[in-house]
């Protein structure tokens, strides 16, 4: 039995969730190779954010260790001042090229791109850091759709969806998306986050209960926490954990509403739940099932409808929600259902829909064009090419001794383990010309840091092979640098 199942009942709030999440980790590892480090650009001198605040910025124990959770939960009465240690820590990481976040693109998002880091240092290379799975963000037809929408419909919806913010494009998108998924209705949101958070917040009342996979996306976790104090996380992908929690809630609260929340493809581990079992459990206990399909919809499966289609549960899942920010080359999200009441409820009583500006006509037309490509023979061809790239890259990484998690998908979680080594690997990879995202605690549990390698249909085999070569060299360079940083001064002087 997974030991996590013995303690998951203790989860009652976000801090408890974070603690348990931390304890779930399996041991991470790394196997250095033998290639020399590629030298990067000189480091700029760090400018302290406050006088004397960064006296320890050269100490590896400061910038190689620590995590965001630590620095965002510091006490103190001054709400702004207590954020200063976070800035100091991130600035120190940046100065030592150990902060891979907040990169700024200076070209189209493509298989190869140009960008700058937070300090303004430029870099370029093969791009495995963008979630443009079918390579539609720069597709000529998609770009033309955006241009036409701007010329014909303007650039702004100029209002909430409940007022005058809806456009003909938005309504057509809702209809076409619902039809493609096999549902009666869909409602689009200006962001995917808003779709997840807002749908839960609208459905669930304080007396209701949410049973949720403990690794579900933050928008789903925060929506649940905001809606009700009765949140019941269950061990990741545990069918037994899901059923036991739902059965217990229904036994103890026979009149309460129960929302079950999971994903069709988890982005940190590239794994998938038994959705058929989830449907059956919800039917047996009178619960409502909501599945987030942000990462696999459009880019996986023969028909592009991902694991929901592959497992034969489209139309049986009560609510399907997702984001357009992956395959569909736009901001925005949606929620689809067969129940006639959901759409108007989301329009009129959902914060991220009712009290914010509606999706722009440009966004809507971009998604419509992307959807038409996804449903076409070209879409099928792009999905096939994407899967070939995924299989080749996973095999190549494994051949170089890298551990990859989960099943083949556009996300290849590549384990590195300890946070200091992981930060140095990512830094060296950038120096070598490979753009890739680092994921560390609290997004994953401690000592399970990983690269979230994101594959595109337009990556060539040369791109894939170059990336693996750079990453292998980066691992070697990082291991050597880490050993030097941790060595006692007298050892360095010999």
Overview of the structural elements:
The chain has helices at residues 4-7, 14-23, 60-63, 68-71, 84-95, 140-153, 168-181, 192-203, 218-227, 239-252, 275-285, 306-310, 342-349, 351-354, 361-374, 377-399, 419-432, 461-486, 489-493; strands spanning 104-105, 112-116, 122-128, 185-189, 209-213, 231-234, 258-263, 288-292, 319-323, 333-337, 411-417, 434-439, 449-454. It is an alpha/beta fold and 494 residues long. It has two domains: 4-32 and 107-131 and 380-486, Alpha-Beta Complex (Aspartate Aminotransferase, domain 1), CATH 3.90.1150.10; 140-374, Aspartate Aminotransferase, domain 2 (3-Layer(aba) Sandwich). Strands 4-10-9-8-7-5-6 form a seven-stranded mixed beta sheet, with helices on both faces. Strand 1 (104-105) and strand 2 (112-116) form a beta hairpin. The longest helix is centred in the last third of the chain and has 26 residues, at 461-486.
Task: Write a compact overview of the structure shown.
This protein is α/β, with parallel strands linked by helices and 494 residues long.
> How many separate structural domains?
2
- The number of helical segments is 19
What's the total count of β strands?
13
Strand-residue fraction? 5-15%
- The share of residues in helices is 40-55%
CATH topology of the largest domain: Aspartate Aminotransferase, domain 2
Describe the sheet with the most strands.
7 strands, mixed
Question: What is the residue-averaged pLDDT?
Answer: 88
| Parts with pLDDT < 50 across at least 5 consecutive residues | 1-54
Q: Report the principal-axis shape.
A: globular
Rg over CA atoms, rounded to whole Å, is 23 Å
CATH architecture of the largest domain: 3-Layer(aba) Sandwich
Arrangement of strands in the largest sheet? 4-10-9-8-7-5-6
**CATH homologous superfamily designation of the largest domain:** Type I PLP-dependent aspartate aminotransferase-like (Major domain)
- CATH class call of the largest domain: Alpha Beta
Classify the secondary structure makeup into a structural class. Answer: alpha/beta
Head-to-tail CA distance between termini: 51 Å
